[in-house]
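User: What would this chain look like folded?
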Amino acid sequence: MSSGVLKEIINGGNDIVSLKYYKVAVVTILLYDYLLTLADEVKYAWHGRKTWVFALFLMNRYTPLGYQLWVLIVEYGPTSPQRVCDRSAFLSALAFTWSTLLAQVVLTLRIYAITGQNRIIAACFGVITMSQFTLGLYLSILVATQGAQHILPIPLDAYRLCIFVRHRPLEIGFTTISLLYDFLAFSLIIYLVARSNVYKSPIPSLLWTIAQDATLYFMFIFTSHLVLELTLLFARPTLQVHPAGGNIVYLPVMIARLMLSLKKANASQEHVWSLGVPTTHTTVAFAERRGFSDTRDEINLDVYGSGHEGTQSQA
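Assistant: Here's the prediction, encoded as structure tokens.
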């Protein structure tokens, strides 16, 4: 055996071991964050009227827990048949697509509300979201039909890893769309808040919460997507899958915290949630001054509920 082949085997084994440690670490983060925010979830998310966005919150919250449990069983349990490994690779692609969809739906709803229910802007972000979801769904179908691959052809459990590595151009395209969406959403939210300085008008406190959440989300998730993009482009195959596994955890954690943060900030005020933000007269007037609100429309929208049954917010 040549020294080059031996070095490749050793590097591949080290990469696979590091990936398994990485998966344990991100699952630990998911569980730890869940325990930290469970009290807020019970107090705020489960309080008041339940709407379809509450269901969205639950899917974002609990789907990753089920998926990560499956991963730990498959990757660290007894040797599984190839069909189980194939299913795990398919679930990995589908989970990444699903978590990205949920994150972008929540952010699009916030943008829709903060712009005074501007349908054109929301539609633009919706097109980006659905284009990426379609690409991710197509990638998941390819993985389901072709199954998992072994990075190194070594029939040992230590080298068994349920991943897919045949569709790097599609994965790079998927991640590039995420970077574009994150940048546009962050820029728009910050622009709306920054314009208040020009108009010298007060900014509703909940809009400050949205801006702060958006900044935190952008710094963390955009960086994560950027690292994933660079890894897919330049890293060796056994390292390319590291950040993707983390994103399946980071995205749900960040989205759950964004939703709970705004719900918590809203709890002390008599507002009803509308698409992730309260559409009070202050918020709508703030959007109108920036030319984003269409006052011809009257929309009754409620997200989560305010705890005051029968109360609705009109935009």
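The radius of gyration is 22 Å. If you want, I can go into more detail on any region.
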